[in-house]
Amino acid sequence: MQTSSTRAALPLWALITIVGIIVGLSMGRNQSMGLYLPPVTQALDVGRESFALAMALAQLLMGVGAPLSGALIDKFGAGRIIVVCALAAMAGLYVMYAATTPGHLLISGALLGIGVSGTGVTSLVGTIGRLAPPDKRLSAIASIGMAAGIGGFVALPVMHFLIEWAGWKQSLLWLIVITGLLIPLAWPLGGKPQPAAGVTRQQTVREALAEAVSHPSYWFLIAGFFVCGFHVAFIMVHLPAFAIDQGLPSWVGPFALSIVGIANIIGTYIAGQSGRFIEKRRGLSLIYFGRAIIFLGFVFLPMTAVTVITLCGLLGLLWLATIPLTSGLVATFFGTTWMSMLFGIVFLSHQVGSFLGVWLAGRLFDMTKSYDAMWWISIALGLIAALAHWPIQEKPVARLAAGNT
């Protein structure tokens, strides 16, 4: 196990608060970019697939960058990585502001994905995992997941207001300023992680990767998190447009996603406490099965404002509740020395799912003018993920069981 050395000798609750603010700002912005789908595609006179592909690329590069950012944070600390990624996100927002072609949207999406890769839940979960003692680790990680939900809850109405008040282009300039707030917040998180007292030899990156890829339960976890990304990205990017397609007012989609953020706070808190009562793998199976049931509502229920908001509220209870349980299993398997990197690999699968969920929804809509096929695909994947978590063996690898580092 490692401990974290930070520039500022702050108590655990203060460092969790700082990380939570960084994650909330970053994830909230990322989760709310679907609000720009209608105005950007109309302004550039392109189909939804063009914007969806750009946001899908952002999701993919967010996932590709997560293991790299995680490894750098595990090795050198979080501060510098946060600054670099914040600057990348600011550049991505500016490119979208100045965009005139679909190619510009792709560049914007790439920069936004790189930006979130080092400032989101995934890359910073290892920092919190090292700071918190084992008996408080799951609840501490859940706090970061809750912060991401709060960020979504706050970002959606704020970004919707900015778009309505200043126009979509000017609202992006405001987002650049807000994203810049991440830079001073990175300072207290500087400093390299230090080995725990008494540890004479630390596991290398190569050893950690070799151990992980040979662990069957790790692969089940990777498969399940792919489905999580597919679900979340599809909803976050396409729900506002879906609501408008149903003839509902433009406020319904953003408001429903805000309800997701509120409910996520409750659901993630429950998930963080659930380790005391139920195995994490069982909790994950229940979450994915519950999502499949809720998606059936989008297929069979009449789509009114009340229906959409209610379904999104239920979905929010299962939204980022996967994060403390999934990352907690990574820590259970392998310890916290390379937790950010190893959870980053799991998250890469999540973002491959996100890429497919965002892009495929745009592609299928342009082909069929409907999201019906996406709802059925989401239902099927939810059931598959529920089954995939069942055979996971929730125990440390032999190295940890033997007391080695």
Strands, helices and their partners?
Blueprint: E1 2-4, H1 12-31, H2 37-44, H3 48-76, H4 79-98, H5 102-117, H6 121-131, H7 137-166, H8 168-179, H9 182-185, E2 193-195, H10 205-213, H11 216-245, H12 252-274, H13 280-300, H14 305-316, H15 322-334, H16 339-368, H17 372-388, H18 398-401
Helix pairs in contact: 1-6, 1-7, 2-3, 3-5, 3-6, 3-16, 4-5, 4-8, 6-7, 6-16, 7-8, 7-12, 7-15, 11-12, 11-15, 11-16, 11-17, 12-14, 13-14, 13-15, 13-17
- Give the overall shape, derived from the CA principal axes: globular
Main pleated sheet? 2 strands, antiparallel
Q: For the terminal residues, how far apart are their CA atoms?
A: 7 Å
Number of helices: 18
Name the poorly predicted regions: none
Order of helices and strands: EHHHHHHHHHEHHHHHHHHH
Q: Tell me what the CATH architecture is.
A: Up-down Bundle
CATH topology: Growth Hormone, Chain: A
